Amino acid sequence: MIIFRADGNKTLGTGHVMRCLSIADALASKGKEIAFITADDNLKDMIETRGYRCEVLGTDYRNMSSETYALKNTDSYKKAEIIIVDSYFVTEDYFRVLREDLKTVYIDDLAKKRFSADLLINYNIFADEDIYRKEANTEDRKNLRLLIGTKYAPLRDDFTNLPDFKVEQMVKNVLILTGGADSLHIGYGLEKYVSEIRSREVRFDDRLKHGLDGARFHFVVGSMSDDYTKMKALQDKYTDIIEIHQNVKDMCSLMRKCDLALSAAGSTLYELCACGVPTITYVLAVNQLRIAEGFSKSGTMIYLGDCRKNEDFFAESYKTLSMLSLDSKMRGMMSKKSKELVDGRGAIRIAEEIIELPKC
Known about the structure:
It is built from 16 helices and 13 strands. The protein has helices at residues 15-28, 44-49, 68-72, 75-79, 92-98, 129-133, 139-142, 186-198, 206-210, 228-237, 251-257, 268-275, 289-297, 313-325, 328-341, 346-355, and strands at residues 2-6, 34-38, 53-56, 82-86, 103-107, 119-122, 145-148, 173-177, 216-221, 242-246, 260-264, 279-283, 302-306.
């Protein structure tokens, strides 16, 4: 058995669990038995709906060192050969304890400290193998296997080997993605701004506004957002321009239906790359900063900055979407670069590497 240790809530969002589910699907397709272990039951239903057992520890996700006794006493842990950990709250001692029993895999976003796991994955655009090699000063760490770079972005099978994205002259559909929790209420704020523009409650540059004339805005509301009810109510007033989506079963098709996207700088950016959707990104958490900067430096995406530090964020978002809608050549270049970065086979590559880990 292979087990995953990951959490999701209104603070963390759903990204850690979602990418683990993509790897789990790839491993299950190769005949491996999978189970999840979480600190609480926030995402238990989501995990079980995907077909995997989920055991809940009843512990504090921020204090992982204190959970090892409870973790080792779960049925899944006792049956496991490999554990895959995806958390910002791990410690060196935590991995040392796990390695007494199991092969360990760590999914790392931060690249601030190298842990002595058996396999480490950092699929981010900013990831650099040298960051980890510099800390290879013990025998454990010298033997660590590294999977680094966007070729290992763990996406669902839907995103694999997609055809080229068709760049239209006119923008008809715009996708807005704000993460699983959206604790800053960015989705609702943007929805209100779009409705005010269309109802002429807010003045806007006529030339730029023309770029989005007739466009329909698709807002994806995360499973942990508190804003669905009021966003749905606003949609009902502006059904001609706004459509709300929640619990999307086929995100790939929705993405490819849209001509451009605005998205927070999380794992969703790699899905948009695989689809080839021209994307504008922004930061709403510290851990997203290097991701957004990496995509910006590569020329793949337009970076709007940190929405928490910008009082005019909604206006600037709409303006940038408008400008990009008027430049089909730019959108075509962004789409091409995106698909060159991510081919959607990252989860398969990761699964193959995990299966090849020597047994304890």
